Amino acid sequence: GISGNHLAGYVNYDVLLPHVEIVAKLIEQLVANFKGDDIDTVIAPAVSAIPFSHWGAHYLSKNSKKEIFGVWADKVHGAKTREFIFERESFADKVKGKKVIIIDDIINQMASAKAMIKTVTNAGGIIVGFGCISANKGVSAEALGVPKLSMLTTTEYNTWAPEECAKTGLCSKNVPIVE
């Protein structure tokens, strides 16, 4: 995983992305939990979740009397840990002082989710919640440090630090890492 830990499972949502109607329906369900929260901006991490920010803003705007923005944060390449930044012109303006939700496909170990939360907080966004299609066990609003978590499903699999995996995880059973 992003953290360097070994995962006993992983869900790859990339194969879903070409199916526009399915993505639209999933995101409509996901953002429904934020309809009454007066959201200004829907934010996603780049790259694969970019359509989520637009569909999320689209569906929330339909039930609102205002335009809701859809923006994304780009990955900081070369960083030692997962980091994001608002590089695109005017994106930071759509975050600062705004009520926002962050949406993503999956939360495995919370490394990317927490990095997004830090980026939004540092940009002055007021985080109302975080939404994802799926999350691994242990993921909660409290664990993320956000007021609200919306997820459509959970996935449950174990994770291990590399040295722990060598002792008790899949590595100890000589199960190869498959990327």
Question: Would you mind describing this structure in some detail?
Answer:
The chain has helices spanning 20-31, 50-62, 111-122, 141-144, 162-168, and strands at 6-7, 41-45, 69-75, 84-85, 99-107, 126-136, 149-155, 159-160. The protein is an alpha/beta fold. The strands form 2 sheets. A 6-stranded mixed sheet has the order 4-3-2-5-6-7, with helices on both faces. Helix 2 links the parallel strand 2 and strand 3. Helix 1 packs across helix 2. It starts with 5 loop residues before the first strand and ends in an 11-residue tail after the last helix. The model has no long low-confidence stretch (mean pLDDT 92).
Tell me the layout of helices and strands.
Elements: E1 6-7, H1 20-31, E2 41-45, H2 50-62, E3 69-75, E4 84-85, E5 99-107, H3 111-122, E6 126-136, H4 141-144, E7 149-155, E8 159-160, H5 162-168
Parallel strand pairs: 2-3, 2-5, 5-6, 6-7
Antiparallel strand pairs: 1-8, 3-4
